[in-house]
Design goal:
- The complex is a heterodimer of chains A (385) and B (561).
- Chain A has 385 residues and is mainly α.
- Chain A has one domain (2-381): Orthogonal Bundle (ABC transporter involved in vitamin B12 uptake, BtuC), CATH 1.10.3470.
- Helices cover 69% and strands 2% of the residues of chain A.
- Chain A has helices at 2-9, 14-34, 45-71, 78-97, 110-114, 130-154, 159-178, 204-230, 232-242, 244-249, 254-280, 290-303, 309-328, 333-347, 351-363, 374-381; strands at 190-191, 195-196, 199-200, 282-283.
- In chain A, β2 and β3 (199-200) form a beta hairpin.
- In chain A, α3 (45-71) packs across α13 (309-328), α6 (130-154) packs antiparallel against α11 (254-280) and α8 (204-230) crosses α9.
- Chain A is globular.
- By secondary structure, chain B is mainly alpha-helical.
- In chain B, the strands form two sheets. Chain B has a five-stranded antiparallel beta sheet with strand order 4-3-2-1-5.
- Chain B has four domains: 8-47; 49-138, no CATH class; 152-241; 281-488, no CATH class.
Chain lengths: 385, 561
Amino acid sequence: MIAAAIRRGFEGHGWLIVAIILAFGAAVPILNLLLSPGHPLYPSSYMMVVFGRYLTLMLLALSVGLVWGYCGILSLGHGAFFALGGYAMGMYLMRQIGTRGVYGHPVLPDFMVFSNWDALPWYWHGFDQFWFAMIMVLVAPGVLAFVFGWLTFRSRVTGVYLSIISQAMTFALMLAFFRNEMGFGGNNGLTDFKDILGFDIQARETRAGLFFASAAALALGFAICRSIVTSKLGKVLVAVRDAESRTRFLGYRVEHYKLFVWVVSAMLAGLAGALYVPQVGIINPSEFSPANSIEIVVWVAVGGRGTLIGPLLGAGLVNYAKTWFTTAYPEMWLFALGALFVLVTVLLPKGIVGLAVSLRNRWGSRPKRPAAEPDAAAIQARPAE
Amino acid sequence: MIPGRPSLTESVLQSPSRLRVTAMRILLTITAVLVLALAAVVGRAEAQHELRGHVDALAIGGFAELEDAIAELAATGHPDAAPVLGMLRDGDLYVQPDGTVVRAERGGAGFLVSDPLTGEDLGEVGRGGVDRIRVNNNIRRAVRGALAGVTLMNPDPQIRYDAARTLSGAPSADMLEPLDAALAKEAVGWVREEMAHARAVIVLEPGSGADESTRIAAVERVAERANRDALVLLNAVAARDEGAVQAAAQDGIAAIERRLVIRDNAQHIWYGISLGSVLLLAAIGLAITFGVMGVINMAHGEMVMIGAYTTFVVQELIRNHAPGLFDASVLIAIPLAFLVAGAIGVAIERGIIRFLYGRPLETLLATWGLALILQQSVRSIFGPTNRQVGNPSWMSGAFDLWGLSITWGRLYIVIFALIVFAGLILLLRYSSFGLKVRAVTQNRRMAASMGIRTPWVDAMTFGLGSGIAGIAGVALSQIDNVSPNLGQGYIIDSFMVVVFGGVGNLWGTLVGAMTLGIVNKFLEPYAGAVLAKILVLVVVILFIQRRPRGLFALRGRAAEA
């Protein structure tokens, strides 16, 4: 059945996108490693790091796009799942430092020695094993999402109320992780990583490997989301988005559907965080800040909600713009981002993908909507409530 | 030198007869001055006769004699005795070779000498011309006690009160006698009260030799002061004494602890109300835009910030152009902040939000974008750092109410928040504008059919909510840092208050703000400020699960909209 679902996920343009992601993910590292810096096709190591980061952010945007675009849950707290995955990876990387820290303690990370901890807290045990850390990357955000979602969807908290309490959730977590007593490095977070799976984390080869891993994770995430939204389950999710009460009256257990997609989305966000952290070399509580979470939403809005390719485009474009602005005109970035929020919501409610679709409908040779994008149709058919 | 006119030296050298005349003149002048000075000194000496002897006695003999001399000087109860004792303690008293005691300060080549009683300048002497009166710790203690004794007789009641306080802080059995004397003469009630307390503290000292009934009475008197000092003292008594005194002390401790618990709780409630009123101010504008209009305004915090910056600008203008008006700056800023923030609110509503009605999630995103733009604009104009906003004099300081310390600033903010709340309720309830707002809230199409210009009402309502956020900013500028991030700190709390209290209900906002404020302050002593905040957030999140529409939910059709 699962195989069938995955096969269905690759129908239409789905397999093409997965193939493009994988090809890109393989080509850049290979070109970086094989070609000399003078070659016209040579991607610099800096570019590889930057684009590797974008790939993880695209996966994060995809997770938000799944719940918002297909189930109508506007999460303003997805940064929390991302950061939890990042912390799980960060804890593994901290344990790998071993005696190479400033204080040279074999077990305790530097910040614990510094603040006079005498033993490892119980929740740090096991993180010296890579497989355990990878499980926690999915389990930690998954459990948080399950508890939060189970409480919230069961009591039918919807719409802006849900957005606001998801924002409160990430805000509360941010305050908690800022506390030194929590044992996650407080203000400074986790940093000064040395190596991952025995490879030097700064080395070009490791960077290339992480780049490919990010691309593979994104392709996997895309395939999973694709198989969800093209299944019958996906149809129910769209129904929930468009008329929740009606779906419930038809006999569907709406909260179960929402909970499932919510937890999957949180796990994808956690995976994105886990791949993000080794590439930027730090994880700290500011990743939990509500502003970060709401920024993810605008990536999705720019790209186009209700599609899976939209979040990828949006995350890539907005983050590329952010990199450009913060080096060229740092004080202008917030103006640009703010304007983006306003313009996209007022003028481009369906984002870039929606714009492309309507342009093709107007001027294209084939007025037929592409079969791979049933969601764009769903948006247009959505009754004005 | 002025040309054409011989200098004095030249003229003296030139004419021997003139030299004689000049010498005579100088001599005469000196004599006259000396006579006058002598007369002054004699007159002074006569007036100070009694104390002069006591002061000079300070220089005779060793430490034991010095202690006696201090006691004698203090026993005179003369107002001039206290400053002399102070000089002795500070090591400023010196003795001249003729046995007179003077005050001397290092200066010039040696010492600048003056009279300790009158402060009269006695000129300058060489380094070896005076001898310091040495003091040790015993002498210092004796001086301290004696000073309190002397000041207990001072004509100024405030000084007598302070002396009594000093005594209860450093009790000594020697002071019982002067204290009793002072008590007998004391006519001012509050000074008497403090003296009686000091007496009780002294009686409870181990060496006081007072009998049991006096000590029990003293324990009871001390127990009336339900503060930490009294608790410490009674604990010492309970550990030291036996029998009835110990029992009385234990009773006293229990009574004080009961009162301290009550007072602590009252203090928490007050802090909670104070925090609650800040939350109320921040949230009440949101309650209008979110509750009444159903618009999620994420830029609400920035309206608060703009109000705070308006206060800053008003204060800068007043500082530079009319410093005398500074105390009124906050009052001037209130209407201005309302207008500035309100105008920006109307512009936002007309420019953006009206295109997004019925799409709450999009409104949320668009207003968040506006918040970023407003923040960055303020950062570009005023800089990213905190700006200094001063407190008017009538808002600084504190007063005591049943042992609670209440700052005027906080009290005014509580009152202000309640006034704003009441004003808003009255406006919505009794004005024609309020009627229109309620009509549009309840049924937009019906209201439009009745001839109400709903777009106009929307714009004005949004302006009202934003304007109230602006005046909240004026209040918050008095207690918080005025920086571009000011609004960010309040937006989540404000949403929590509105959602907790129930959307569309201003009374719910009041109850929600006060509840969250008080709960927060009660948790803080046990959990710490950050953890308390986290707990409150978690509690609100869980509460929303139980009652998704808040404490005071709208019922009926309106709730479905």
